[in-house]
Amino acid sequence: MANMNLKLLVWRQAHSGHAGRMMPYEAHDVSPDMSFLEMLDIVNEGLIAKGEPPIDFDSDCREGICGMCSLVVNGIPHGPDRGSTVCQLHMRKFKDGDTITIEPWRAAAFPVCKDLVVDRGALDTLVAAGGYISASTGSAPDGNAILVQRDLAELAMDAAACIGCGACVAACKNASAALFVGAKVSHLALLPQGHPERETRVRAMVGRMDDLGFGNCSNEGECEAVCPKEISLANIARMRREYLRALVHGEPRTA
Ligand code: SF4
Ligand code: FES
Prior knowledge:
Ubiquitin-like (UB roll)
């Protein structure tokens, strides 16, 4: 595949209180083997060389682990590759002459800091609302001291794969955080180590979602479709069951 020339339409916004707009840029001689973020790095080098402000965007690990990269590419959070973060997206997905739109996550709970960078602190607040698990400190416990059913361990590991990127919120027409909270609630509710605080945790996390400006889930499924870790909608159903169970049991219990 030959190198490509591309047109970019990029959201530029000085800060959250400022009106933003789409600005046109060109990316020349782009290798199909480049990652999407490497392509943006090269565009930024060109802008810096011309004395223009570079495009701000978030990234860290660039290997699908940290959840920092947060770009809506051609209208899809994390771009056209299923089960992939935007840092894992390669330019071979595009054709010479394509116009690519690049926008930040759009949600009331994620205010734009600058350009393509949004504040996803609301997700951290949700996790903090869930509190800690009670675990004995000291030397590492014997691996077989707490037996965990194999299928439950697998489901818990699948839920724990959530990297907190927020694409599920950005894709949802209600900007709901139900898939994120469903993954966090499921991860601990499925394991015996998470049982002591099981009810207080789900009540607190679900209660905080509304306060933080996230919308309700209306079972659209957009969240699952864009999730780079393919977190299943079944986690939302489990969160609802956990919440109902906690409500039926009344006041938060500790055991
Ligand atoms: S559920 Fe998926 S899309 Fe949502 S924060 Fe976790 S990894 Fe990202
Ligand atoms: S930069 Fe870490 S997941 Fe994309």
